[in-house]
Amino acid sequence: MKLKLEDPTLFTKSIELISDLVMEVRIKINEFGLSLVAIDPGNISMVSLKIPKSAFKEFESGEEVLGVNIDQLKKILKRTSKTSALILEKKENFLEIKIEDKIKRTFSLNLIEVEREDKEFPNTLEFSSKVIIESQDLIDSIDDCLVVSDACSFIVEGKKFIIEAKETNSARSEFSGDEVEIVAEDCFSRYSLEYLQKFTKAGKNFPKTVLKFARDHPLRIDFVSEHLNLSFLLAPRVETED
């Protein structure tokens, strides 16, 4: 197995984000390319990363599954820069990671057994609402809500999309159809701001964020570029009556 990325920036940033959710992952290499799916220990969120074969300068591999400690992988990948080329090779029970730049560096990462069973990222969920928003606008709105609460509501009312948090104090961001793309029915759903803040960090590397949700339904967040897809699924915060 030998994979080469000429610009590993998005891959590095994605691994950094995923490391906030899980400790170990199974990276799959097949004819599609590179992919992984992981669930956080609390079973509240799920993440999917896909890099198609076409994104790689070199791609020589059959079917492989690489179990890795993602924090250790993150630390190695953070040694790359925008001008680095990244080469991944499996050598017996190690993943050899080469960073080629002015200096050629080589790291060996011990491969591990990851106990969690394989999961597929669900692509058949039905959503009543789809909103495409500028990533920085979403980041700012989530940060506003964090000032007053630990959860926020995504609301569609007519031709408006609203992000709102209400406790003793409140915060509200309102977007019209001129500012965001809305294909939605009226709905209301609440989500954890702790997780949303982790997910929306990805928006610093993607100009647009796609949100899909429905009333008391999981939220799907998609970040898409030409050579990488990063998706998150988040369980709703359902309020119960005492």
What does this structure look like?
This protein is an alpha+beta fold and 242 residues long. It folds into two domains: 2-110, DNA Polymerase III, subunit A, domain 2 (DNA Polymerase III, Chain A, domain 2, Roll); 129-234, Box (Proliferating Cell Nuclear Antigen), CATH 3.70.10. The chain contains four helices and 18 strands. Helix 1 runs antiparallel to helix 2 and helix 3 (135-146) packs antiparallel against helix 4. The mean pLDDT is 94.
Name its key features.
242 residues; alpha+beta; DNA Polymerase III, Chain A, domain 2; Proliferating Cell Nuclear Antigen; nine-stranded antiparallel beta sheet; five-stranded antiparallel beta sheet; elongated
